[in-house]
């Protein structure tokens, strides 16, 4: 029956679907690429087959009755209504099956909780709606957010192969090494999941959760945030690139150099034009999901910046709200999230874009001094 | 207690009063039962139409119909309305109608409180639904309203939502007190506890669950209220609070809550299966003990909803073992139902069709529950469509089919007419196919990695989502047929005998159909 149902479904869907959709009919979990994910997969298959077996017996008896013991065929009912032996048996046998199932599950769980002896430590922080990855041993870090263009989401453009599962800066990890993840969040609860690793852990503000993985096959692995975290919960993918060790070492060196270069930008003399150009980019990644690309926001949760008091009047108040956030609202403190250069650029951009023509600018140096005063 | 009942019946020997005041002021358990049932069906259609919005948006990848903010409001309101507005009041309605008839009592023990607990509900839902039209929109943080998304980051309407939950809680607790008082005090002479019909047993246990956990929910939302409006930090980490505390408190309510939504259905099914098998229920005593065991265990498993929050290993193991244990009493119930059918003399009128589908599909929901209980595997299933498939299999063919089965079973008693059997069977088959088409593919989506509560998805999930949406639309439209069948049955149809089902047992079948406005003014004798 299942085969017929599948064919019927495939036929209906085939008629309805445009040929461009690259969907598939995957019905089961995939084993993944780590030891943990393989163990989970085998637990999953074991319990699935146990359920199927119980189902066959129970539904078998039921369907036998449905077909054979019908009133319309003149079947006379029996009158039994208890049997202690049978009742004890069908209490004890399921219990035994469950104990048999709990043993391997316990072993896998203990293994998943063993985060000791890691070789690389990465702190993952969930933000509305992107991830921050910090390589705590190497002193650099960056944000990773959705890179699928808005036009694809709004159906103005054909959807790409990795629609909604692509980011600007993927997490990079070395293959063959035990990588420990330390998870927390800056605003609401998020959950970091890569199905191919069998790793899912909640990122909770005020808590640091631990989990780990060891990936043996190089490749790009994709997942998503799995804890409802607000409006863009569905647009917060996780992408991990597992690379060979030498490649990883080279990449780390490059990142460290880039982080150093970024720090030096604070000292540079910036013009209004330079800040505006950089500000537009920084605004698009850090601010636009709430305040919108055109600065009109989504009141009342996310106020407009276009023509707003904050962006047009007192500069210090503007710097304060961007750096320190506003408690009790969705406005985060960006002081720790963005570099001085980006903070200065964003504030300058907000004071001069969309007709907010104040002509005022703030330099990275000034932001640096502002932060130090606090 | 008998003195109270006697004066009551003497004062009201006439029929119901005319006009709106009959409904506003009624203390009659049958009137109140009908109001509960009508209210819950209205909420079922409202919550269902929100599900249609969700499935329409998920019909294809990309954003077509609604924006993510509104999508989140839909998933939240759908869940809240279905749980608190459709399923729970429907069972209270069945309890009001049937408990006095089944135990030979003239009415509920506390009739005026009964009226009050019903009329609180429309007020609560008026407040809840009105949030859709408020600035900032309705609650958008899921029916589980995890802090701090629902506190610091919640919309301004959250306070109204909290008030609505408080009122619903008051209504449920009063309803539960009424059920307990009625069952413990007003049974006909000779009806000992172990002679009570199973629907009475399951409702007695459900009522105790309600009294135990609704105050816990009230506590959770009160802490939210304080965090939002009075500057406390119960759930705010930056003020020294604990977001995970919210989840512990919520699920301490939430897990017994799922049994509140299913135990009365267990009871009703335990009447319907023997009636249409023309054979006594197999293992009455073990059915009672199983329900008791499930209810007790339901207090010890809450953290299985929280396997990924980072509770310690010992905690994970405890909650995994405790959860697996629930499968044992649940299995006993399923085995008993199947054995009741075995070597019976079966016929398949609409109540039996819904009951058989209940057993099969609820068991499938139980199987996926067993899989979810395996903590390591739960790391892959958690918060994916696999979970959505699981709880819809437990709630739609579980709770909702249980309610449909009960409705068809007792409609002749309520209205005095037989319903249209052909239409009812059509209703069943369309619901059955639609429901499976809607929810079975969700297992595949979850296993393939689709998270729940997302308004848009990656392309590999497109096909099964489309199938699921088609099934959901089919299931949704079919429910209008149920409305038509019930209206038709109320207005006329073949006259129903006092006992329209030849295999049915119980005191409710000893009174005429339709059941007179006042029944059992003198208690019957139970041997």
List keywords for this structure.
heterodimer, A: 374 residues, Immunoglobulin-like, Cytochrome Bc1 Complex, Chain D, domain 2, 3 domains, 11 helices, B: 527 residues, mainly alpha, disordered N terminus
Write the layout of secondary structure elements.
The complex is a heterodimer of chains A (374) and B (527).
Chain A: H1 2-16, H2 35-68, H3 84-112, E1 120-127, E2 130-135, E3 140-144, H4 150-153, E4 171-174, E5 179-185, E6 190-194, E7 199-203, E8 209-213, E9 219-225, E10 237-243, H5 245-265, H6 272-286, H7 288-291, H8 309-312, H9 315-324, H10 340-352, H11 364-373
Parallel strand pairs in A: 1-5, 4-10
Antiparallel strand pairs in A: 1-2, 2-3, 5-8, 6-7, 6-9, 9-10
Helix pairs in contact in A: 2-3, 6-10, 10-11
Chain B: H1 2-11, H2 20-25, H3 29-57, H4 68-103, H5 111-130, H6 158-185, H7 198-229, H8 243-260, H9 263-277, H10 284-297, H11 313-341, H12 350-373, H13 375-381, H14 385-415, H15 421-447, H16 462-491
Helix pairs in contact in B: 3-4, 3-5, 3-16, 4-6, 4-14, 5-6, 6-7, 7-8, 7-9, 7-10, 9-11, 9-12, 9-14, 10-11, 11-12, 12-14, 12-15, 14-15, 15-16
Overview of the structural elements:
With 374 residues, chain A is an alpha+beta fold. Chain A has eleven helices and ten strands. In chain A, strands 3-2-1-5-8 form a five-stranded mixed sheet. Chain A has a five-stranded mixed sheet with strand order 4-10-9-6-7, with helices on one face. Chain A is elongated, with a radius of gyration of 28 Å. The N and C termini of chain A lie far apart (70 Å). In chain A, 35% of the residues are buried. Chain B has 16 helices and no strands. Chain B is mostly helical and 527 residues long. In chain B, helix 3 (29-57) packs antiparallel against helix 4 and helix 4 packs parallel to helix 14 (385-415). Chains A and B meet through helix 1, helix 2, helix 3, strand 7 and strand 9 of A and helix 4, helix 10, helix 11, helix 12 and helix 13 of B.
């Amino acid at each position: 029956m299942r085969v017929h149902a599948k064919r019927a479904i495939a036929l209906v869907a085939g008629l309805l679907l445009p040929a461009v959709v690259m969907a598939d009919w995957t019905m089961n979990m995939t084993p993944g690429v780590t030891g943990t994910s393989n163990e989970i997969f085998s637990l999953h298959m074991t319990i699935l087959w146990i359920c199927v077996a119980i189902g066959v017996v129970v539904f078998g008896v039921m369907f036998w009755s449905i077909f054979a013991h019908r009133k319309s065929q003149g079947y006379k009912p029996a009158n039994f209504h208890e049997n202690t032996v049978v009742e004890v048996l069908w209490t004890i046998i399921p219990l035994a099956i469950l104990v048999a199932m709990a043993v391997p599950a316990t072993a896998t769980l203990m293994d998943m909780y063993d985060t000791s002896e890691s070789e690389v430590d990465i702190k993952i922080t969930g933000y509305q709606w992107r991830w921050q990855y910090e390589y705590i041993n190497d002193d650099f870090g960056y944000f990773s957010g959705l890179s699928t263009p808005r036009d694809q989401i709004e159906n103005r453009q054909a959807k790409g192969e990795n629609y909604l599962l692509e980011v600007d800066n993927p997490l990079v990890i070395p293959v063959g090494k035990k990588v420990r993840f330390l998870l927390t969040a800056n605003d609401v609860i998020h959950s970091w999941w890569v199905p191919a690793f069998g790793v899912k852990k909640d990122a909770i503000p005020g808590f640091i959760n631990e989990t780990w993985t060891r990936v043996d096959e190089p490749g790009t692995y994709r997942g998503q945030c799995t804890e409802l975290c607000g409006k863009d919960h569905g647009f917060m993918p996780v992408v991990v690139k597992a690379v060979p060790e030498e490649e990883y070492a080279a990449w780390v060196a490059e990142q460290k150099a880039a982080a150093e270069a970024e720090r030096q930008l604070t000292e540079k003399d910036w013009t209004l034009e330079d800040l505006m150009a950089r500000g537009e980019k920084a605004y698009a990644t850090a601010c636009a999901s709430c305040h919108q690309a055109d600065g009109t926001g989504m009141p009342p949760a996310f106020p407009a910046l276009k023509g707003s008091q904050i962006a047009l009047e007192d500069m210090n108040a503007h710097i304060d709200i961007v750096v320190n956030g506003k408690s009790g609202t969705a406005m985060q403190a960006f002081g720790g999230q963005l570099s001085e250069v980006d903070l200065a650029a964003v504030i300058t951009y907000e004071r001069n874009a969309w007709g907010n023509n104040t002509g005022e600018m703030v330099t990275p140096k000034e932001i640096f001094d502002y932060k130090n005063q606090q | 207690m008998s003195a109270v009942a006697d004066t009551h019946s003497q004062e009201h020997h006439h029929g119901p009063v005319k006009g709106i005041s009959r409904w506003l002021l009624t203390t009659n358990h049958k009137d109140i039962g009908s109001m509960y049932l009508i209210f819950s069906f209205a909420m079922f259609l409202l919550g269902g139409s929100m599900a249609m919005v969700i499935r329409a948006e998920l019909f294809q990848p990309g954003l077509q119909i609604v924006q993510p903010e509104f999508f989140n409001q839909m998933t939240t309101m759908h869940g809240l309305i279905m749980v608190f507005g459709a399923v729970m009041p429907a069972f209270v309605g069945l309890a009001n109608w049937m408990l006095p008839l089944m135990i030979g009592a003239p009415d509920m023990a506390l009739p005026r409180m009964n009226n009050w607990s019903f009329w609180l509900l429309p007020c609560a839902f008026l407040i809840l639904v009105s949030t859709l039209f408020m600035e900032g929109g309705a609650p958008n943080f899921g029916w589980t309203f995890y802090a701090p998304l629902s506190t610091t980051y919640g919309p301004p309407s959250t306070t109204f939502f909290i008030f609505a939950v408080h009122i619903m809680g008051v209504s449920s607790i009063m309803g539960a007190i009424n059920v307990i008082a009625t069952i413990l005090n007003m049974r006909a002479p000779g009806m000992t506890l172990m002679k009570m019909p199973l629907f009475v047993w399951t409702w007695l246990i459900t009522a105790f669950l309600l009294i135990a956990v609704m105050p816990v929910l009230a506590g959770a939302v009160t802490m939210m209220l304080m965090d939002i409006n009075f500057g406390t930090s119960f759930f705010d980490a930056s003020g020294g609070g604990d977001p995970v505390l919210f989840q512990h408190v919520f699920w301490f309510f939430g897990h017994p809550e799922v049994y509140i939504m299913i135990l009365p259905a267990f009871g009703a099914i335990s009447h319907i299966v023997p009636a249409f098998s023309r054979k006594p229920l197999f293992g009455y005593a073990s059915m009672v003990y199983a329900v008791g065991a499930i209810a007790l265990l339901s207090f010890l498993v809450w953290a299985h909803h929280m396997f990924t929050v980072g509770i310690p290993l010992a905690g994970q193991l405890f909650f995994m073992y405790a959860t697996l244990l629930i499968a044992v009493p649940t299995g006993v119930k399923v085995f008993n139902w199947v054995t009741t059918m075995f070597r019976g003399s079966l016929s398949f009128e609409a109540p039996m069709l819904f009951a058989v589908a209940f057993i099969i599909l609820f068991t499938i929901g139980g199987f996926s529950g067993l899989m979810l209980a395996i903590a390591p595997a739960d790391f892959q299933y958690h918060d994916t469509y696999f979970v959505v498939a699981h709880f819809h299999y437990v709630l739609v063919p579980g709770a909702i089919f249980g309610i449909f089965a009960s409705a068809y079973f007792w409609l002749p008693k309520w209205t005095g007419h037989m319903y249209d059997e052909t239409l009812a069977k059509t209703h069943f088959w369309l619901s059955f196919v639609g429901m499976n088409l809607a929810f079975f593919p969700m297992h595949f989506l979850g296993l393939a990695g689709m998270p729940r509560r997302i308004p848009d998805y990656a392309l590999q999930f497109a096909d099964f989502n489309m199938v699921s949406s088609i099934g959901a639309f089919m299931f949704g439209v079919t429910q209008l047929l149920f409305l038509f069948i019930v209206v038709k049955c109320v207005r006329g149809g073949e006259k129903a005998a006092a006992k329209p089902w030849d295999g049915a047992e119980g005191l409710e079948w000893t009174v005429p159909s339709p059941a007179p406005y006042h029944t059992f003014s003198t208690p019957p004798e139970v041997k």
